[in-house]
From TrEMBL:
Classification via SUPFAM superfamilies: Cupredoxins
The keyword Ubl conjugation is assigned to this record: no
Signal peptide: 1-23
Organism per entry: Tetradesmus obliquus
The protein's name: Plastocyanin-like domain-containing protein
Classification of source organism: Eukaryota, Viridiplantae, Chlorophyta, core chlorophytes, Chlorophyceae
UniProt domain Plastocyanin-like: residue ranges: 545-661
Keywords of this entry: Signal
Domain of life from the UniProt record: Eukaryota
InterPro entries recorded: Cu-oxidase_C (IPR011706), Cu-oxidase_fam (IPR045087), Cupredoxin (IPR008972)
Family designation: Belongs to the multicopper oxidase family.
Length: 693
């Protein structure tokens, strides 16, 4: 079976205004080092837009990335990257889509890459077609657009089985895709992202080709009379916004020679791709590859919104809303705040409110550190406060493995995990005392951050002294949010937010499915549909790479035996490996309902960052070793029917075969699901706050 068939009916070969065959324009992105975050190219306006942006144009083209860090790191390499808009601006990220639930999202994707040669059939589960591409909207609760595995036309939505091929020669017109997605009004607010998902090329493309998606806040989910949701809503909605897109440039060989293929470098993936990636990995075709980061065993680095070790300026004592995305093609990191002597700092605080675009069961959750793997997002309120007498106004956002709160016993398996990306300084936090100080407002794209933060941070202490609550008319000053009625400012809650004091409402795709909740809803836990789903990797006999399987099967499409998630039921998946394969599912998230702590690595701690009951769409818990029943997760499928995939989100594993087709099954349908992509003839065992169809 040929897995590489391009569904040409899905792709339009669009004539472009420029004359192809003329000298191709070459693009360069110079990575800023140690500069203010807001000065990063594209940060203001493209990464954090000042208005709703439901429609964008992106062009995938070769971009040469360059780094010349005063500390000694040097890098120059070329990779497929997104150019923004019709002006084709070379940023480190694509433009952020920003829209309200109930809207329609559109992406025009043009593939200007050139790739001569053909994919060899000898390696169907390897790195292949490195410059062919497509799109996936990671984390969105949306339809998959595939009602039949034999479908041959693009019906919109998140169809990742299509191919937008590279050109064969410069004179060819580029292929393009008009991607669209309808976002139901019951979608929770939060951060998601888009990236390439063409099987065989995701590893090469994703770190340098991706963008963010923000579904705007809706006060419906945090009703004022539900605990302290009113003050919590005010805290979130009036906070200056920071978007940290944490990407990975990977040129470092795994320290364990046996694991080189488990966690390969950009060079290895490029050279063993079929055909080889023409942009890498020596000076050929005019593309330069080199620098200290590529020498010897190489170096990995984390960039923050396209910058290396940027400076994030924050006002003393002011809560900021951090939206974080871990967009690297592989890897995981822990993040925490340190002082400039690299000791844990209590002056900066995390209040976690959401993971992977889904509110925690109760918010906010005070945490000491966060852990993110490839594909994860989180939202947190962050505040840094200076003592009355402070010798320093700077702190470090660090990913160091030293004195890790997740590893108080210094377990070396955890500390030196070959997928772990450790970096002493990811960003520097500069705290300014006077709210009006130059450089405070890093989110000038949102009017509140540019104009209102100073007034509110000055007014809050005065209101507190007077023992009064101040009204903040957010709707009048902040076009990035769309509250029907201004939330009420609570100065006492602002000074000391109460942990777990707000219980958000839940949509049907993100209800509590733990046993007690099922029993309360009249659904006996004994009725839960149970399936084991496990990843496994194998070294190839020739030593050149590995293959990776789900339940012993390599990826195939069509898949004669997809994993089935029937609507009208609660489905539980159990995996034996929570630590070495980030478990990602398309179409909708899942709830973590059980950990086998007998498999926990000695000396490690889950901390309260990981809790039974949390939702996620990409699950990695590196503290839990391989063993039977390591992690249990539950789904309440619906209403999106059809075919999607689950896979390991170390994308090198996905390219090597660790991906499996799943069928979101509508009752009464078999192989062919409803053409509309929406199933209506079922009932949710545990209804949400509003119906989902």
């Amino acid at each position: 079976m040929n897995l590489h068939v391009s569904l040409l009916l899905l792709v339009t070969i669009a004539a472009q205004c420029s004359v192809y065959g003329a000298a191709e324009r070459r693009y360069t992105y110079n990575i800023p080092s140690g500069q203010p975050l807001e000065k990063t190219p594209g940060y203001l306006g493209s990464l954090i837009p000042m208005k709703q942006v439901p429609e964008i144009t992106i062009t995938q083209a070769p971009v040469t990335w360059k780094l010349s860090d005063p500390g000694g790191l040097q890098l120059e390499f070329t990779a497929p990257s997104y150019l923004t808009g019709t002006s084709k601006l070379p940023y480190a990220f694509g433009p952020t889509l920003r829209l309200r639930a109930g809207g329609i999202m559109k992406i025009k994707l043009v593939n200007e890459m050139i790739m001569e040669g053909n994919i060899t059939e000898e390696a169907p589960h390897a790195f292949m077609g490195p410059l062919d591409t497509n799109l996936h909207t990671h984390g969105l609760w949306d339809a998959n657009g595939v009602y039949d595995q034999n479908q041959t036309s693009y019906a919109g939505q998140d169809n990742i089985f299509i191919n937008v091929p590279a050109r064969k020669k410069p004179s060819d017109a580029p292929a393009s895709l008009d991607f669209s997605s309808n976002i139901l009004k019951e979608h929770l607010p939060g951060i998601h992202w888009y990236h390439p998902h063409k099987h065989g090329s995701t590893t090469i493309q994703t770190s340098t080709s991706h963008g963010s998606i923000i579904i705007e806040d809706d006060p419906f989910w945090l009703p004022a009379r539900r605990g302290l949701c009113g003050p919590m809503q005010a805290l979130i909605s009036t906070a200056p916004e920071v978007l940290l897109d944490i990407s990975l440039l990977f040129f470092k060989l795994a320290s364990n020679p046996a694991k080189v293929w488990d966690s390969p470098t950009y060079q290895l993936v490029s050279n063993y791709s079929s055909p080889q990636n023409p942009l890498c990995c020596e000076s050929k075709n005019g593309w330069v590859f080199g620098g200290s980061m590529t020498k010897g065993n190489g170096t990995d680095i984390l960039l923050v919104s396209g910058a290396y070790k940027p400076v994030i300026t924050m006002a003393d004592g002011v809560w900021y809303r951090w939206r974080m995305l871990y967009s690297g093609a592989k890897g995981w990191s822990t993040f925490r705040f340190l002082d400039t002597a690299m000791a844990n700092s209590k002056q900066c605080e995390w209040l976690l409110i959401a993971k992977d675009g889904v509110y925690l069961m109760n918010i906010p959750r005070k945490v000491e550190a966060v852990l993110m793997s490839s594909g994860n997002r989180l939202e947190a309120m962050v505040r840094c406060s200076l003592p009355s007498r402070s010798s320093s106004n700077e702190f470090i956002l660090s990913a160091t493995a030293t004195n890790d709160p997740f590893n108080p016993g210094n377990n070396q398996t955890f500390a030196t995990d070959f997928f772990r990306v450790a970096q002493d300084e990811v960003a520097r936090i500069k705290v300014v005392r006077r709210p009006g100080s130059k450089g405070q407002h890093i989110n000038k794209a949102a009017k509140y951050a540019a104009e209102q933060a100073t007034k509110d941070t000055q007014a809050a202490p005065a209101a507190a002294a007077a023992g009064a609550d101040a009204e903040v008319d957010v709707a009048a000053v902040d076009p990035a949010h769309f509250y029907s009625k201004p939330p009420k400012w609570d100065s006492r809650f602002y000074r000391n937010p109460v942990p777990d004091s707000c219980t958000p409402l839940r949509p049907s795709y993100a209800v509590d499915m733990r046993d007690a909740a099922l029993t309360a809803a009249g659904y006996p836990p004994s009725r839960v549909n149970n399936t084991d789903v496990n990843f496994a990797g194998y070294n190839n006999a020739d030593g050149l790479g590995t293959t990776c399987t789900v339940n012993g099967q390599l990826f195939s499409f069509p898949d004669p035996s997809p994993l089935v998630l029937p609507m009208g039921e609660i489905v539980q998946w159990t995996t034996n490996n929570g630590r070495s394969h980030p478990f990602h599912v398309h179409t909708q998230p899942f709830q973590l309902t059980g950990f086998n702590l007998s498999n926990q690595l000695i000396g490690t701690e889950l901390t309260n960052f990981f809790k039974v009951g949390d939702f996620t769409d990409t699950m990695l818990i590196p503290q839990i070793s391989i063993g039977a029943g390591s992690v249990q997760m539950r789904f309440q499928p619906g209403p999106f029917s059809g075919y999607a995939v689950m896979h390991c989100h170390y994308l090198n594993h996905e390219d090597l075969g660790c991906m499996k087709v799943i069928q979101w099954k509508c009752p009464g349908y078999d192989a062919v699901q409803p053409a509309s992509g929406i199933c209506t003839n079922f009932k949710y065992p545990v209804p949400g706050a509003v119906p989902s169809y």
